[in-house]
Design a protein that fits this description.
- This is Dihydrofolate reductase.
- It holds the Pfam family RibD_C.
- It is a single chain.
- This protein is an alpha/beta fold and about 210 residues long.
- The protein has a domain at about 5-20 and about 45-165: Dihydrofolate Reductase, subunit A (3-Layer(aba) Sandwich).
- It is built from 5 helices and 9 strands.
- The chain is globular.
């Protein structure tokens, strides 16, 4: 059975996925709200993220997210709270970049980006669950070419009005299917899990 490419994103209600985790994570384009997720603690987010990571056996990241992860997770592996760090250290890391001289110092890291369609097919053949976390610029490429199997969105009841969005104008027109009922915590943070299909939107007109 072929493996799956899963996209995991934290997003605001108006679709902003830029720089959720820290004030210096991504301020490109003059973005003023880097760290918006950290500024809105969620009582249920941690549990749903941990559950979603149980099948993960590879990471697929954009360059910026890879650098952030490589600077953080190898140093956060102790005790129960270090479970994700130990997992990320252990599994293969694939980094999307066209730079053949990209320095990859985090153990078990590999570059992809020459031929995404072929490389995603290879990753599905090698792994059960390849998770794309953050990496919104790279996610745009996957959405544009339909190179994913599942889209997991943790949606926060926040409006920012500016910043990099989950969906830009290049996303491949397609119909997604809801994989399970939405899960929400007391603060209104909601997990939405969608599966990709080969169906495309149709148009029509409502008649009286």
């Amino acid at each position: 059975m072929a493996g799956r490419i899963l996209i995991d994103l934290f997003t605001t209600l108006d679709g902003v996925a830029q720089g959720p985790g820290g004030t210096d994570e991504d301020t490109s384009g003059g973005f003023l709200f880097s760290g918006w997720q950290a500024g809105y603690p969620s009582s249920g987010m941690g549990e749903t993220v941990s559950q979603g990571m149980q099948g993960l056996d590879a990471l697929l990241l954009g360059r910026r997210t890879y650098d952030i992860f490589a600077g953080y997770w190898p140093h956060h592996t102790e005790g129960p709270s270090g479970e994700i760090g130990r997992l990320f250290n252990r599994v293969p890391k694939y980094v999307a970049s066209r730079n053949p001289d990209l320095p990859l110092e985090w153990e078990n890291s590999h570059r992809v980006g020459e031929d995404l369609a072929a490389e995603m097919s290879e990753l599905r053949a090698q792994h059960r669950e390849v998770h794309v976390i953050g990496s919104v610029d790279f996610v745009h490429s996957l959405l544009a070419e339909g190179l994913f199997d599942e889209l997991n969105l943790w949606v926060y009841p926040i409006l920012l009005g500016t910043g990099k969005k989950v969906f830009d104008d290049g996303a491949l027109p397609s119909i997604l299917t809801l994989l399970e009922q939405p899960v929400a915590d007391e603060g209104g943070v909601m997990l939405l899990r969608y599966g990709r299909t080969d169906r495309t939107p149709e148009v029509g007109t409502f008649e009286d």
